[in-house]
Amino acid sequence: MSSFAFRTSLRATALAAWLLAGPVCAAPAAPAQAAASTPAPARQQVARLAAAFHHARASFNPLLFATANGDSRYDDQLGLSIAPQRRAAQFALYRTMQKQLAAIPRQHLSEQDALTCELLAFELDSALSLAKFPYHLLPLDHFDHPPGTLANYASGTGSQPLATVKQQLAYLSRLKQLPAWIDQAVANMRVGVKSGIVQPKTIITAMLPQFRQMRSDTVEANIFYSPAKNFPASFSDADKHQLEAAYRATVGKQLMPALDRLVRYLETDYLAAGRASSGWSALPNGAAWYQAQIRDRTTLALTPDQIHATGLKEVARIQQQWATLGPKLGYTGAPNALPQWVTAQAKFKSFTTEAQVLDAYRAIDARVKAKLPAMFTLLPKAQIELQLEPELTKATASDHYTPPAADGSHPGVFWPVVNDPKDYSRVGMVTLFLHEGQPGHHLHAALLKELDIPDFRKFDTENPNSAAFTEGWALYSETLGKEMGFYDDPEAYFGHLNAELMRAVRLVVDTGIHAKGWTREQAIAYMAKNLGWSDARATNQVERYMVWPAQALAYKTGSLKILELRERAKQALGDKFTLPAFHAVVIGDGTLPLPILEARVDRWIAATR
Predict the structure, then answer these.
(1) Contact 556, 564 (CB under 8 A)
(2) How far is CA 103 from CA 28, 49, 120, 314, 455, in A?
(3) Which residues, 6 or more positions from 111, have their beta carbon under 8 angstroms from its beta carbon?
(4) Cβ within 8 Å of residue 348, ≥6 positions away
(5) DSSP label at 576?
């Protein structure tokens, strides 16, 4: 066991002992005797357990549950969540927490404390429902992995800033832990090959260039050495010298050899063992595994067949609007071929430089900011910035957002992916910004940092089982372009509908690949035909769905639920309905599973009546 794995194991053991040392939760008592029969008020027990859960989860996977969410307290930790013994310890701790939570008397809890209990129960149940599935045997893909995340952080512009010596040392600490993570990943993949749990050959082929690019002939040329070439001017000469020596030793003596071992294994054993199938159903117990992921990602009890049918229905509904919209754009051909025609038109591609694309997004942002106060009573203090996707990942990345740090050390960032500005279409820019920027991800994620809620709720935007809310809210936010006046422009309205169509197509393709036996090529052809995409762009998306099952289902599922709740509230409240009030209910308590969101909206409707 590596020294880091040993330390994290000790932390888990110590945390379990701390929880069990005193009665965090007591057996339910009669209301009149509750105060006397419990060692601490129930609200203190809730707060203590909530804090312990966040610490446990953030220590288990600090990249996902801390740094990516703006919690910088764990920036010196990498976590070894893929180690079998670490997984076992984590799930054992979660079972202990379930028992502690179940014993908390609920009679005198405030509404917020009761909600925290409800959300803690949901998070623990969700994590443990997936415990029996061997995710750790698929530790690497082309879409998301710790080596790639740390490579992106090397610029200092991502979720882990490098503006101080302390921040540099935290990043160096992670680099020192990365070789152990890589070796554990290789060990896991060897076990996966023996048990038939292996990535498709096409995915292995797609991820190999990324890891090859992380290697270099010299230390100075290595991407992980980049911080040593870009120290802030405020650093003293002594600090620069010490840090540079540390980077040189860490990258040259530890990390580069580990990357060489990884690439050799991927190029030989793993690639040869790659499977020809595309979907999760081809894996051992794959159908049950996919169904569990659907429940986790959508937070609803839906079957693949139900979701597939919804996708087909939505695709047909949206495509019916092409006949009306096409002539407004200058198109007179077959309606269903409108996306292909728009994609091919040079008149929608007016950029020549990346800077022009960024300026266009900044202009959209200015218009949005002017509209937000009329639609929202809750607006975050944190600002949003725009930065281009880094060179390393832009060939395979999708446009995305990273939330601000809770301590204000960095803002929220929208990362548009611009591979060729001359081929960058204007038509989807408004909708993309409403989704990834504001009022989509930024408004939700930045508000979370300002709410007085426990850390596990505050730092919850990147949690996979929060996607139905986070991505559902962002997709719903796209529809607000109508109220903002953006969609009076046929060009922007086409972009909105085409983006909505993409999310409907995802329902069809994701379930097609993972539950209905679709091949990768069949899925690519379906996307290209219905969205007017090039095969390369469709391939990028399909291969994302192949390695991230059910995540793409969250967008449309969540958006449809929010739209359903909005219409329900309008019908029930009539003149008493206001959009700012509805939005405050939806996002005012942070990230919520859809069933809990629905219950809260229903209570608001009843109270407002």
Answers:
(1) no
(2) 6, 12, 13, 44, 21
(3) none
(4) 342, 425, 426, 427, 491
(5) G
Domain that holds residue 95: 3-133
Q: d(Cα 244, Cα 225) in Å, to the nearest integer? A: 9
Q: Rounded to an integer, what distance in angstroms lies between the CA atom of residue 518 and that of residue 515?
A: 8
- CB-based contact 42:109 (threshold 8 Å): yes
In this structure, the answer to whether residues 269 and 325 fall within a common structural domain is no
Task: Tell me the residue length of the chain.
Answer: 609
CA distance 52 to 59: 10
Question: Would the CA dihedral through 112, 114, 117, 121 be positive or negative?
Answer: negative
Those residues whose C-beta lies under 8 Å from the C-beta of residue 409, and which sit 6 or more positions away, are 72, 161, 163
Q: Distance between terminal CA atoms of the chain?
A: 61
Q: What's at 316, amino acid-wise?
A: A
Say how many C-beta atoms besides its own lie within 10 A of residue 510's C-beta: 31
Instruction: For residues 10-18, give the mean pLDDT.
Output: 35
Quote the CA–CA distance of 259 and 283 in Å, as a whole number.
28
Same domain, 30 and 167: no
Q: What is the pLDDT of residues 409-463, one digit of tens each?
A: 888 999 999 999 999 999 999 999 999 999 999 999 999 989 999 999 998 878 8
Query: Exposure of 278 by Cβ count < 10 A (0-12 exposed, 13-18 middle, 19+ buried)?
Result: buried
Residue 139 lies in a domain: no
Residues 6+ apart with CB under 8 A from 58: 65, 66, 71, 73, 74, 455, 459
150 versus 157: the higher-pLDDT residue is 150
Distance between CA atoms of residues 45 and 210, nearest Å: 46
| Phi, psi for residue 116 in degrees, rounded to 5 | -60, -45
Phi, psi for 386 (deg, rounded to 5): -115, 130
In a domain, 592, yes or no: no
Q: What is the largest CA-CA distance in the chain?
A: 78
Q: What is the DSSP string of 349-405?
A: ----SHHHHHHHHHHHHHHHHHHGGGT-S---SS-EEE-PPPTTTTTT---EEEPPP
Alpha helices in 253-329 (DSSP H): 256-265, 271-273, 286-298, 304-319, 322-328
Rg (the chain; Cα; Å): 25
For the entire predicted model, the pTM comes to 0.87
Domain annotation covers residue 599? no
The residue among 133, 165, 190 that closes a domain is 133
Looking at the structure of the chain, the number of domains it has is 3
